[in-house]
Amino acid sequence: MFPSRLRLSRAGTLCAMIAGLALAVPAFAQEPSAPVLDGTVESFVNAAIAASPMLAAARYRADATRSAAGTRGALPDPMLGFGYFISTPETRVGPQQSMWMLNQRLPFFGTLSLERKVATRTADIADRSYDRQLIELRYDVQRAFYEYYAAVKTREVLGEERDLLTRMEAVAQIRYGSGLVSQQDALKAELSLSQVEDDIQVTERRRIDAASQLNTLLNRPLTADLPAPVGADSLLTAPPADTLVAIALERRPEIQSTQIEIDRANDSRSLARRSYFPDLTLGAQYVQVGEAVMPNVADSGKDIWQVNATINIPLWIGKRTAAVDQAEADAARARSEKMSWDVRIRNEVQDAGKRVAIARDRVLLYRNSIIPQAEQTFQASEADYQTAKADFLTYLDSERMLLSVRRKYFDVVSDYGAQRAMLERAVGVPLETIE
Q1: What is the pLDDT of residues 49-74, one digit of tens each?
Q2: Whose CA is closest to 222, among 234, 213, 231?
Q3: Count of H helices and E strands in the chain?
């Protein structure tokens, strides 16, 4: 019994150790969890960034370019050679049998560092390409989100409207049955209810389309469930236009890329000018010598060592001049592109800033004036209708006006969100990060 108990004890200890090791696995060894969709626009953006295969491909492309840059700027591999004399030349000290050669080329001073700088700048341009795709993805997700928001909220309002019209129709039927109103009131309520049902179908189609677009950007099935949008009607006070323009001219990937291209062209020009100067090649040779045929020869069979230095002659000037001209043309092109982007970005930021201000004012107008006025009008018409001071048509018109205003409000909020996304794309950084 004792040995079996001992084995059980050891087994239990081993299980405990395994469990302890499992609990002790560091967090970085576990798979990262996907961003949680909580209904906010930023959660959708983060989920799209994490799931986008196109963005991941751009990141891998930039990483590959960066890794390729690490191969530049190093010395060329040395050349090792071996020769065997089939017909051995006879020398005083003996016949030469074989020869080993080792050569190392040394490019002109500064050539390798310039090659490394040119390759590094190419990798920097690839990073800016990734940044551009990231900005475009954020913009696409935000546009789709605000369209989804408008559709969902409009669908909710139409559902409330359907319930209200159902009650209005019931009241009209009761009043018609009591002989207080004509049958026309009940028919008008029924017609309005049918129109709302049609609007619900159209809005549902709009919601499905927006959800499908969002799911595509999230790399999910088109019919995957999405949380209800929240926080879309929060308003942001944008910084002054001059501040946004200054940030855009500093942070936009297009500006950064053209500046990097200018620097790369200047480095390429300096590198091309290095080709006018010769490279140095250092070498060493070892010759194996056999024993001399003649006896008693001094240094008989003594091997030969030799060192040498050679330079190439940069004789063909035409190709070197062409390389310098190409680099200068690339620098001039990049400078022109940067000037063009400077003007374009200024106009984009200023125009988008004005659009955001107008859209924000519209949201406030609907929120503070139009919607409260429409609600007051509807409440007054409802009270007048119940006391027979207003006919059913006036009551129904006020209700339809309130519905139209509420639906329009969500479209206005959606437009504000879209314009804000446009401004963010023009600036090149999320507006929430700008103090």
Answers
A1: 999 999 999 999 999 999 988 888 88
A2: 213
A3: 10, 5
CB 309 within 8 Å of CB 386 = no
Amino acid at 1: M
If you count them, how many residues does the chain have? 435
Query: What span, in angstroms and rounded, lies between the C-alpha atoms of 147 and 206?
Result: 8
Instruction: Tell the residue number behind the tokens 């065997």, with chain if given.
Output: 84
pLDDT of residue 4: 41
Q: How far is CA 431 from CA 218, 258, 305, 399, in A?
A: 22, 24, 71, 38
Whether the per-residue pLDDT at 280 is higher than 70: the answer is yes
15 or 205: which leads in pLDDT? 205
Its pTM stands at: 0.79
Here the tokens at position 435 are: 């103090």
Per-residue pLDDT band for 307 (boundaries 50, 70, 90) equals: very high
**295: amino acid identity, one letter:** P
Six-digit token string for 96: 């030469």
Distance in angstroms (rounded) separating the CA atoms of residues 324 and 272: 5
- Of 196, 243, 304, 154, the C-alpha closest to 429 is 243
Task: Give 377: exposed, middle or buried? Use CB within 10 Å, 0-12, 13-18, 19+.
Answer: middle
The C-alpha atoms of residue 143 and residue 213 are separated, in whole angstroms, by: 10
Give the contacts of 277 (CB within 8 A, at least 6 positions apart).
108, 314
